[in-house]
């Protein structure tokens, strides 16, 4: 796949997307998001891919939505174009797990993009923030909703209302990121985690992703019922037979992804 503002690669069973708009600190405009969407389409359709990593540069995962592109927007420009959510939905609807590997700035829409992913692995250089208030706007791609779910109301309010940045250590302590690694190991660590995931049964991995996400969209009881049904359905998979037979026979399972 050839793109202008992102680079896509296949590393083993992992699809790697690298945002590549360095002069604008990977600011996210329609073209970047369309290209991410097209790359995700390709990786989802590829049976050889079991997980996806999205990363940026050493300096910035993404410094936000492109401010220049929206500076002169009227209300109707934003409303009609459904800026910016139109082409961001694709990240949310991806069924294969996505890891955000974040170094440097993840601000505004950049932080929101990372939060749309399933796991955030941060370099020690990472800085997270929702500084939209400084621009006379508010977060518009999930910042006021996903951040409190990830870090709680106090820190979410603090970040959204004061525009201060949170470093990697604070983000890990707050529960926004799953691990912090040295910056020079970031992509390798993310690829290794993605490769581990891709080695498991793809349908089971997708069921886990769906079930964990359900925890944020339902009551506990509804979520437990959902999990129970999905759990039952796992017994229809050949991968379940293989996984359990391999354990009993003390060998490594060979998942066939069905
Ligand atoms: C467009 C951006 C940009 C952005 C940086 N650049 N962020 N361009 N949109 N979000 C550009 C700068 O204009 C500059 O271009 C180049 O990248 C380098 O940035 P500098 O500011 O010179 O770098 P530095 O001094 O290191 O400061 C880094 C920074 C700062 C702290 C990240 O750039 C910054 O505050 N950026 C804006 C962060 C922000 O407010 N994000 C939220 C955006 S609103 P030139 O051409 O001058 O070299 C948003 C809403 C989401 O995300 C809504 C979703 C629906």
TrEMBL record:
Its EC number is 4.2.1.17. This is enoyl-CoA hydratase. The keyword Lyase applies. Keywords: Fatty acid metabolism, Lipid metabolism, Lyase. It comes from the Bacteria. It catalyses: a 4-saturated-(3S)-3-hydroxyacyl-CoA = a (3E)-enoyl-CoA + H2O; a (3S)-3-hydroxyacyl-CoA = a (2E)-enoyl-CoA + H2O. SUPFAM superfamilies: ClpP/crotonase (SSF52096). The keyword Lipid metabolism applies.
């Amino acid at each position: 796949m050839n793109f202008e503002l992102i680079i896509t690669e296949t590393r083993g069973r992992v699809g790697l997307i690298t945002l590549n708009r360095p002069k604008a600190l990977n600011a996210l405009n329609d073209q970047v998001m369309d290209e991410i969407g097209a790359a995700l389409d390709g990786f989802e359709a590829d049976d050889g891919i079991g997980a996806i990593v999205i990363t940026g540069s050493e300096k910035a995962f993404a410094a936000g939505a492109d401010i220049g592109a929206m500076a002169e927007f009227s209300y109707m420009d934003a409303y009609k174009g459904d800026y910016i959510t139109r082409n961001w939905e694709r990240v949310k609807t991806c069924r294969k797990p996505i890891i955000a590997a974040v170094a440097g700035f993840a601000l505004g829409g950049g932080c929101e993009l990372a939060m749309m992913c399933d796991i955030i692995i941060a370099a020690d250089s990472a800085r997270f923030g929702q500084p939209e208030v400084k621009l006379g706007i508010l977060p518009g791609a999930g910042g006021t909703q996903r951040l409190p779910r990830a870090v709680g109301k106090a820190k979410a309010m603090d970040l959204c209302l004061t525009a201060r940045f949170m470093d990697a250590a604070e983000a890990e302590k707050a529960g926004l990121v799953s691990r912090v690694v040295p910056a020079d190991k970031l992509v390798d660590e993310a690829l290794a985690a993605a490769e581990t995931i891709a080695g498991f049964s793809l349908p089971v991995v997708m069921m886990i992703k769906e079930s964990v996400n359900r925890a944020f969209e339902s009551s506990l009881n509804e979520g437990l019922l959902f999990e129970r049904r999905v759990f039952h359905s796992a017994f229809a998979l050949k991968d379940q037979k293989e996984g359990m037979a391999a354990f009993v026979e003390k060998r490594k399972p060979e998942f066939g992804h069905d």
